[in-house]
Design brief:
extended, mainly alpha, 0% strand, single chain, 118 residues
Length: 118
């Protein structure tokens, strides 16, 4: 492996570890395994990895599909169990924020000339 790439991943890993440790110190049991925020973190990391895997393996499918499938699996397959750790209020709020982001991105991607003709 290229030394520059290795050092880049090492910095990313150490940064993620420090962010997690500082959030454990601030939020205590919510960020420990079994807490709501820890469940969100695991689901986010797995969905990000699934989306990136679809892009890396050049499947031709957008990474959002991999993220949706991973989120669906974590929420509905009881073997993993991390989806059940997330409280329903937190899940509802995260879904509303995600919907707002999706709609904003869709709106920003519109061609204004075509919209003005309508």
């Amino acid at each position: 492996m290229d030394p520059a790439l290795r050092s880049k991943w090492l910095v990313r890993f150490l940064t993620a570890g420090l962010i997690y440790l500082s959030s454990v110190l601030m939020l205590k049991e919510q960020m420990l395994p079994g807490g709501s925020l820890f469940g969100c973190l695991v689901v986010y990391a797995a969905s990000y990895a699934a989306g990136t895997a679809l892009v890396v393996f050049k499947t031709g499918v957008p990474n959002l599909v991999g993220q949706l499938v991973a989120g669906f699996i974590f929420r509905n397959v009881p073997v993993f169990g991390f989806g059940g750790d997330v409280s329903s209020d937190l899940s509802k709020n995260v879904r509303l924020v995600a919907l707002a982001f999706i709609l904003a991105r869709a709106g920003l991607g519109l061609d204004t000339k075509i919209v003005m003709k309508l």
